[in-house]
Design brief:
Layout: H1 19-24, H2 30-37, H3 39-47, E1 60-61, E2 69-70, E3 75-76, H4 78-82, H5 84-88, E4 95-100, E5 106-110, H6 111-127, E6 135-139, H7 144-155, E7 159-162, H8 169-179, E8 183-187, E9 189-192, E10 195-198, H9 200-206, E11 221-225, E12 239-241, H10 242-245, E13 258-259, E14 263-268, E15 278-282, H11 284-297, E16 306-309, H12 316-328, E17 332-336, H13 347-355, E18 359-362, H14 364-373, H15 376-379, E19 388-392, H16 398-408, E20 415-418, E21 452-455, E22 467-472, E23 482-483, H17 487-494, E24 504-512, E25 518-523, E26 528-530, E27 533-535, H18 537-545, E28 550-560, E29 564-573, H19 575-580, H20 586-598, E30 606-609, H21 623-630, H22 646-654
Parallel strand pairs: 4-17, 6-7, 6-8, 7-14, 8-11, 11-12, 16-17, 16-18, 18-19, 19-20, 29-30
Antiparallel strand pairs: 1-2, 3-13, 4-5, 9-10, 14-15, 15-23, 21-22, 22-24, 24-25, 26-27, 28-29
Helix pairs in contact: 2-3, 6-7, 8-9, 11-12, 14-16, 18-20, 21-22
This protein binds adenosine-5'-triphosphate and magnesium ion.
Protein name: Acetyl-coenzyme A synthetase
Organism: Microbacterium deminutum
Keywords: Acetylation, ATP-binding, Ligase, Magnesium, Metal-binding, Nucleotide-binding
Length: about 650
């Protein structure tokens, strides 16, 4: 059987950049030319935009694939690059963080202030015996101290493992144990959905007496920021208040240089397809690509832009595009603590207006939830400062892209749909604003210096107009260096499939259009096989979202006696539609709609109207759980689900 994926959807809308935007853009067409002429020299040049204590002479060592070493004989300090360097160039007074607390409090933190805090904290960490190679777990709300914690850990050469603050004590414990963390940095609690969500109690639970569990306790101290003001228990000798120790520490701290390949952080994947993997990143190559991509893809002009990436630091987007990329570039950015709908559903747009945000980087799940609520909400705010919009995390359906452009972007702001993964460390495929003519729904082109292909099961290029498996064909600076503690799983998961060719297998399906540009088709595990046709989830979902009634859709293949698999669709209906129509008969008309839009083969056998979809905590749809429902099976592992109640609601609705 062919491994190619059938292509059903045709999208012909195109948006060229304005001449003015192109003239002012950071990115240029020459970037592609210079990368094509000499890839290694190109990355060396990007790396030299950083400060190296010891300049590198080697660019890449790929003598032992898949274990790459980038800029191996160079040495740098990642925190120095994000902080001290900007003071040296006279930008200490520039605001680094425009922090907005959920209850309405605010803080403005300059580069000089953030540097001061990080230096003090670095001294505290060293006083606690934290140094090169030690692991520190960070379990915090979105407050300036969280960023300071990440930077102080890497400043002293240690490795952080940020655990999303919405995770349970069990998930935290698993991550603390996997990494063997010596220190946990946390807060008493943080604000979420209008109330204090406790964190320290979960840390206490995670570290509670484990006699007999067979796991050795590695954590020596817990450092706690006061944020929520909630009561917390205290373990004398182990627990320390941040406000007791950090202000009292010296503000003198010299950033030592560490080798380019020094481990920087461990971060677990979202767990959309299964058990999260502890992805390991290192220093020089990672920072090079995070900073470069942030600059050219988001079009950062640090002296004038107000940038806002809405991701939590618990995800890779929060690492590369909240902490490392923007701070290495000396940008001014918004950091928001809470949820988008607190205390009202226009909160994000209120922040855009208040802070004058010029660049917004968010996820399709957020855009679709705003679509569900309707355009009247964003329309109440002045969003005219926005000039670049970004999307990451899932394929963005063309209609969601158009809504983003028209309603949020004032019909002018270019949209960059950025494809990448925890494993890739930084953006790999994206338009460059000011250079690329954009296409709704397509991630488009590999960045300069990145080599991508779409291949069949044998590793052969599929050719334009065809779908297959997305691979990266050459090593890249911010590539993962392994899975923490599991080198075999690293090789097996990403490199075994195309071992002969030496390709990295991303696990995603993709298609090349007639121009050779890339359209993501969803995860390979989710591809459906209907009467011998291999259908992607993304295209059918996009057809559903193109219907005026639908805000969001998820499709899965459910076993079927006649066709092998049949398409089962779960859809969320827009509130504006429900205000004027009855949902009776909608399922039937959506089946017909998909048939008309993209062909009878894609017509869903079942359409279920639901109120919620199962999502990971970072907002990605977990289709494997819907497959269980559609096939009438017991629902599988739901531990990475944001809201575990959602599956019983959906199961009840389907029955
Ligand atoms: P796990 O690997 O544990 O299942 P995950 O893949 O959801 O979790 P992440 O690393 O956060 O963990 O997500 C990367 C994945 O997100 C990509 O492989 C792809 O499926 C999807 N993705 C990210 N950005 C885009 C995009 N712009 N277009 C399409 N898909 C995207
Ligand atoms: Mg993944």
């Amino acid at each position: 059987m062919s491994s190619q994926i059938d292509h059903l959807l045709t999208e012909t809308r195109r948006f060229a950049p304005s001449a003015q935007f192109a003239a002012d853009a950071v990115a240029t067409r020459e970037l592609y030319e210079s990368a094509a002429a000499d890839r290694e020299a190109f990355w060396a040049e990007q790396a030299r935009a950083l400060h190296w204590h010891t300049p590198f002479t080697q660019v890449i060592d790929w003598s032992n694939p898949p274990f790459a070493r980038w800029f191996d004989d160079g040495a740098l300090n990642v925190a120095y690059n994000c902080l001290d360097r900007h003071l040296d160039t006279g930008n200490g007074d520039r605001v680094a963080l425009l922090w907005e607390g959920e209850p309405g409090d605010e803080r403005r933190v300059t580069y000089a202030e953030l540097t001061d805090e990080v230096k003090r904290l670095a001294n505290v960490l060293e006083g606690l015996g934290i140094g090169e190679g030690d692991r520190v777990a960070i379990y915090m709300p979105m407050i300036p101290e969280a960023i300071a914690a990440m930077l102080a850990v890497v400043r002293v050469g240690a490795i952080h493992s940020v655990v999303f603050g919405g995770f349970s004590a069990d998930s935290l414990r698993a991550r603390v144990d996997d990494a063997g963390a010596k220190l946990v940095i946390t807060a008493d609690g943080g604000y979420r959905k209008g109330k204090v969500s406790p964190l320290k109690p979960a840390v206490d639970l995670a570290l509670a007496d484990r006699n007999g569990s067979g796991v050795q306790e590695t954590v020596e101290h817990v450092l706690v920021v006061r944020r929520g003001g909630n009561d917390v228990e205290w373990t004398e000798g182990r627990d320390l208040w941040w406000h007791d120790v950090v202000p009292a520490a010296s503000a003198e701290h010299e950033a030592k240089a560490f080798p380019a390949e020094n481990p920087l952080f461990i971060l677990y994947t979202s767990g959309t397809t299964g058990k999260p993997k502890g992805i390991l990143h290192t220093s020089g190559g990672y920072l090079t690509q995070a900073a470069f991509t942030n600059r050219v893809v988001h079009d950062i002009h640090p002296e004038s832009d107000v940038y806002w990436c809405t991701a939590d630091i618990g995800w890779v987007t929060g690492h590369s595009y909240v902490t490392y990329g923007p701070l290495a570039n000396g940008a001014t950015q918004v950091l928001y603590e809470g949820t988008p709908d607190t205390p009202h559903p226009g909160r994000w747009w209120e922040i855009v207006q208040k802070c004058g945000v010029t660049i917004l980087y968010t996820a399709p799940t957020a855009i679709r939830s705003f679509m569900k609520l309707g355009r009247a909400i964003p329309k109440k705010f002045d969003l005219s400062s926005l000039r670049v919009l970004g999307s990451v995390g899932e394929p963005i359906n063309p209609e969601a892209w158009m809504w983003y452009r028209n309603v949020i972007g004032g019909k002018t702001a270019p949209i960059v749909d950025t494809w990448w993964q925890t494993e890739t460390g930084a953006i790999m495929i994206s338009a460059l604003p000011g250079v690329t003519e954009t296409k709704p729904g397509s991630a488009q082109v590999p960045l300069p210096g990145i080599s991508i292909d779409v291949v069949d099961e044998d590793g052969t290029h599929v050719g334009n107009g065809n779908g297959g498996l997305l691979v990266v064909t050459e090593p890249w600076p911010s590539m993962l260096r392994g899975i923490w503690g599991d080198p075999e799983r690293f090789v097996e998961t990403y490199w075994q499939k195309f071992q002969k060719q030496g390709f990295y297998f991303a696990g995603d399906g993709a298609r090349l259009d007639e121009d050779g540009e890339v359209w993501l088709l969803g995860r390979v595990d989710d591809v459906m096989n209907v009467s011998g046709h291999r259908l992607s989830t993304t295209e059918i979902e996009s057809a559903l979202v193109a219907n005026e009634a639908v805000a969001e859709a998820a499709v899965v293949g459910a076993s079927d006696e006649t066709t092998g698999q049949a398409v089962a669709a779960f859809v969320i209906v827009k509130q504006s539609y429900l205000a004027e129509h009855s949902p009776d008969g909608l399922a039937q008309s959506l089946r017909a709609w998909v048939g008309e839009q993209i062909g009878p083969i894609a017509r869903p056998r079942d359409v279920y109207i639901v109120e919620e979809l199962p999502k990971t905590r970072s907002g990605k749809i977990m289709r494997r759980l819907l497959r269980d429902v559609a096939e009438g099976r017991e629902v599988g592992d739901t531990t990475t689900l944001a809201d575990t109640a959602v599956m019983s609601v959906i199961s009840a609705q389907v029955r």
